[in-house]
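Exam revision sheet. Question 4 asks you to relate a sequence to its structure. Input first:
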Amino acid sequence: MAKRGHAVRGSPTGGKAPTKRQREPENVDLERENAALKRDLAEALEQQTATSEVLQIVSSSPGDLEPVFKSMLENATRICGANFGQMNLYEDGRFRPVALCNVPAAYAAWVAPTPFQPHPQSGLGTVARTHEVVHIEDIRTLPPYLEGNPSVVAIADLAGARTYFVVPMLKENELVGAITIHRQEVKPFTEKQIELVANFAKQAVIAIENTRLLNELRQRTDDLKESLEQQTATSEVLQVISSTPGELEPVFQSMLANATRICEANIGILFRYENGAYTAIATLGVTPAYAEYLNLGPIRPGSTTGLGRVASTKQTIHIVDTKADETYAAGEPLRRATAELGGARSLLNVPMLKGDDLIGAFGIFRQEVKPFTDKQIELVTNFAAQAVIAIENTRLLKELRDSLQQQTATADVLKVISRSRIDLQTVLDTLVESAVRLCEANIGQIALPNEAGYFQTRAHCGFTAELREELERIPFQPGRESVTSRALLERKTVQILDAQTDPEYKLSKAQRFWRLSQPDRHAAAARGSSDWRVRLVA
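Answer key, structure tokens:
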């Protein structure tokens, strides 16, 4: 223990209490540098994260630009410490807003998604002219604001913008748009912040270009698919034509089925045009009420209807809405029936032309207002041309068959004549049978003069023995009472289209007997008679 009065031995510090050592200047600078590096690293990491998010949106939304633009603006606005952002595309010298982020409601209500031309001294106007980044420290010092330019005043006063910058979106030095980032205070942006948005602008251009290429690829794919469908449909129709020579009904049905399917239509009708009137000869998907209307008889459409205009112009007629023009309002019968009984709204009428002559028309109807495309119209036009070819081929084939039948019949008669030179009855019977068969008739007769100067039936076809006895027993003279006596009187071929309506024609007892002797009137109708009118070859 120290004694009283004696001083305590001094410490190395000269009797002062020990203190911490003073920091050296280089250590302070190192800490500051570390802090700056940490801030830079955090900022770089944030920017990389934002870029990664944007790239992920780009890859996950091919062909859809809206989520890409939205993600870019949200990340750019957040990282730049800004209040709101806007993206505009540049087309034909005008900017068009395509995305907004955190825009104040007052300005959002004012801005419209329509193209606008900016003031030349505004941020967008300068970017359009220079294609370079524009950094405005205070929008309220710009000449456009002081002049009262509506766009600049709106973004400054309604949105409260003060400091902002505009980054151009360039594709090989061609301006395609711009990104604008705003602060509601006067506080300049850093170079790194502007650089980040510049990178987003590049990615936006890439996304736009990729979307354009993808849309072009999809369009080409759709075109190829549509072309393949049309070729397949055409091939099916041609196959039906080749497999059913001379039969038009399956050909027309195949055309209508393929045309309505590819045209996304509900109803298809093929009309034949003769003597200024249309007749529906094939239908598909027609409502019962409209079918009943079409079966009433030949249609003579008004001049303003689709079919009427086809008849006068011989051009394809495309009506977008059957109820939207004066033809419907005026109550034109065909238009009213088509729209109300058939339920047709959009319709397509395509002419069937043989040279310059109209021989028919296709009618393709939708029961909704939806215009037909050019390619759909082209397909129906091709079917119309094929229908004309099928009709012409059928006509030629029928003529060929008729000619062959006539030659065969002539050969048969000549064979009979050569074998039966003295048997006149056999020759006459062969002649009348061949004539009835070639004419697709029901009965026939050959009359020769007798010794008294009258004519009597010497050969017949289609009569029973009792009828033949009756005809052979009743002689007749040239006159107007029958087709045979009239031919003898006029010494030329005579045709009576309807004996029942001919005022001079008198139905003979034999013919009445023939009618009453038929056991099945429906079978006779199926063989070609109409309303029990007999086809007679005499």
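Marking note for examiners. Confidence is low (pLDDT under 50) at residues 1-15, 512-536.
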